[in-house]
Amino acid sequence: xxxxxLLLGLATERxxxxxxxxxxxxxxxxxxxxxxxRLRKARSWLAVSLTLLLTLLLVAPVAAASLLLWDELLRxxxxxxxxxxxxxxxxxxxxxxxVEDYLAALESGDADTQRQVAQELLERSPPxxxxxxxxxxxxxxxxxANNRIFGVVFWFLLLGPTGAWAFRVVDLMRHRVEVxxxxxxxxxxxxxxxxAAMGEAVRTLHGVLAWIPSRLLMxxxxxxxxxxxxMSGWRSGGPAISLPFTEGSNEILARVGMAASGRSILDxxxxxxxxxxxxxxxxxxxxxxxxxxxxxxxxxxxxDWLI
Length: 307
Prior knowledge:
The chain is mainly α and 307 residues long.
């Protein structure tokens, strides 16, 4: 049931691009800001506990609705509800569309649009130099694929709409932390201090939820791309060893993705090379979703039905 809902949700998403702005859930920002302010002086264990409690409170209505609809009318209401929740848990912005906007701006030389889209992908101000910006965007495609798509899909398949919405709630909080850290939020004393003072609890919880899907995504990159280079990138710890938990996962995810694309060095003076690499990153993400994990999930679902 969840697999069919997943396929319908992913297919329907492409026809509802005009509703993507509703998935940003801006009305939750004041609640997240209030929560972050409460974490200012809280100890680490208490901060994580309070963040988990807030997540459970926001997820409870979806969990209750799922339980109520589970055995009703041959589970048709549950199926429709699951598709609806999945549609609003993916994203919030469409990764493929944003990458296409960046490529169009890069080809046309529209530096303003290029930096604007890069800022959305990076969730911070992009590097000043074009080569550094292009490389940062390429890395962000591999990591945002987990935040926007694969993390949601994994928890949806594991726990249904409750799992998908739980991951989205935590990712929305994490995004709010990054917005505050970059100084792009509404003016108050929180701007610029979120990561050190308040954001670690949110980042830790997000890192826990994202850890398993990120490893499965890396496995997909390995299978869908250059196997030997990707495995070499995965085995070598690199900077990820000394980075915090969440940042370390993002670092290795980006490194494996770049290695799987078959390119490790960016041509500093060649915009055509940058275009090819970014297109390759998008293609690898889509191949991993549709050619690796969707067939695997389908086989597992069929096996479950047969037994």
